[in-house]
Specification:
Layout lengths: L2 E6 L6 H10 L4 E3 H7 L6 H10 L12 H9 L2 H28 L4 E5 L14 E6 L2 H12 L3 H10 L3 H6 L3 E4 L4 H18 L7
Parallel strand pairs: 1-3, 1-4, 2-3, 4-5
The structure holds adenosine-5'-triphosphate.
Length: 206
């Protein structure tokens, strides 16, 4: 049976980098953020519901969702945020379940559900094990500032608003320490790949 591994970590912890390393080993994956975008594409029922509530002002001229306009509406309005979550979260979950079911039917030894909010969203209940990408907050802040061209104070504020590092680690079955270089990361991915293949009952490829 195909194991499903949930992959999570805070901003700039290295989720995408780790996912690419597993993908190079032939491991399939689904990204919860991509799925969240898919379910509000034109033609999707969630977008129709959102448009029925807020009107054309949350659409771009080409009919795609204007995320910034929507964010501005829900930002200061907890009720609207809750409504939006009720329109989107069940659909994201359903779409993820479909993808994970297809993985489980596949020949892959294991597959990844990559989700920044694996624990906060309840998506951890969809997976067999949770892999946390861990870095000290100072590293997270430095990598965020460098990548996203924000200053250190902004990066620090984003990190402070997320689940605390300790709490994430408490929920981890497996941990990748991504404070080091990319070679160190690759070595940890190789070790985990062997462990996951063994757990799935398949020998590691030579
Ligand atoms: P987010 O969820 O914020 O999009 P992420 O968790 O997917 O981020 P990545 O995009 O993989 O994180 O990495 C964040 C940044 O840190 C990228 O610019 C990446 O190149 C860099 N990075 C990741 N791992 C390392 C490493 N071991 N050494 C140096 N830089 C790294």
């Amino acid at each position: 049976a195909t194991l499903i591994i949930g992959v999570t970590g805070g901003i700039a912890s290295g989720k995408s980098t780790v996912t690419r390393a597993f993908a190079r080993r032939g491991i399939p994956w689904v990204d919860a953020d991509d799925t969240a975008r898919e379910i509000v594409e034109p033609g999707e029922p969630a977008l129709a519901e959102i448009t029925a509530r807020y009107g054309q002002r949350i659409l771009h001229a080409d009919g795609r969702l204007d995320r910034r306009a929507l964010r501005e509406i829900v930002f200061a309005a907890p009720e609207e945020r809750r409504w939006l979550e009720s329109a989107t979260h069940p659909r994201i979950r359903e779409r993820l379940l479909e993808r994970l079911a297809a993985f489980r039917r596949s020949e892959a030894p294991y597959a990844l559900l990559v989700s920044p909010l694996l624990f906060e969203s309840g998506q951890a209940s969809l997976v067999d094990r949770c892999l946390v990408i861990d870095v000290p907050e100072a590293v997270q802040i430095a990598r965020t500032a460098r990548r996203d061209d924000v200053d250190e104070a902004q990066a620090r504020a984003i990190v402070a608003a997320q689940m605390p590092r300790r709490e994430r680690l408490q929920r981890a079955d497996d941990v990748i320490d991504n404070a080091g270089d990319e070679a160190g990361l690759a070595a940890q991915v190789e070790t985990l790949d062997r462990r996951y293949r063994a757990l799935a009952g398949l020998p590691a490829p030579r």
